[in-house]
Amino acid sequence: MKTAVLTVFILLTVTAVQAQSRSAHSSSYVTALGVKVWDGAGITLKHFFNDRKAGEGIAYFWHDGFRLTGLYEIHGPISGAPGLQWYIGPGLHVGAYNDDHHHDHSESDHHSHGSFGIDGVIGLDYKFNSAPINLSLDWQPSFEFAEGHGFVGSWGGLGIRYTF
């Protein structure tokens, strides 16, 4: 699974390097595509609907399963720090995990189960002024509506994206 994520990232990077970026010399951007790293890795796409509101989709992959997350983010500038913004917002996710994600089972007792839930996000977003690169760092607490799950406070991560 990590090989597939790495391959997709390399292909996206090569494509992005060949593309012309409208935001290369600006501290703002409209759309950004890249990876988000945490205990696993994910592909992230962020798009601004206007100066303050954005949507972010994240497809996480790791050894215990996968999770698709959609976030609605409200952004605000941080005074005295060009290119740096705070953001906060709600979201939803769906996922499929094997039993090892929350329990300790033997190798012969692996089962997968689906999950869905609500998410929140709070973080910082930085767009380099002289390069088409965006970094974000966030925490995504969530509540999963699946047996034995409930509140999960271990999601979030470091996003590294190419801006368009």
CATH architecture: Beta Barrel
Radius of gyration: 17 Å
Quote the distance from N terminus to C terminus: 27 Å
Strand proportion:
over 45%
CATH third-tier fold name: Porin
Task: Write the H/E string, N to C.
Answer: HEEEEEEEEEE
| Overall pLDDT | 82
The percentage helix is 10-25%
Low-pLDDT parts are: 4-8, 11-25, 101-106
Secondary structure class reads mainly beta
Structural description of this entry:
The chain has about 160 residues and is mainly beta. The chain has a single domain, classed as Porin. It is built from one helix and ten strands. The protein has an eight-stranded antiparallel barrel. Strand 4 and strand 5 form a beta hairpin.
Features:
55% strand, 10 strands, elongated, mainly beta, Porin, 164 residues
Give the gist of this structure.
This protein has 164 residues and is mainly β. The protein has one helix spanning 2-18, and strands spanning 31-37, 41-48, 53-62, 65-77, 84-98, 112-127, 133-139, 142-144, 150-152, 156-163.
Explain the layout of strands and helices:
Layout: H1 2-18, E1 31-37, E2 41-48, E3 53-62, E4 65-77, E5 84-98, E6 112-127, E7 133-139, E8 142-144, E9 150-152, E10 156-163
Antiparallel strand pairs: 1-2, 1-10, 2-3, 3-4, 4-5, 5-6, 6-7, 6-8, 7-10, 8-9
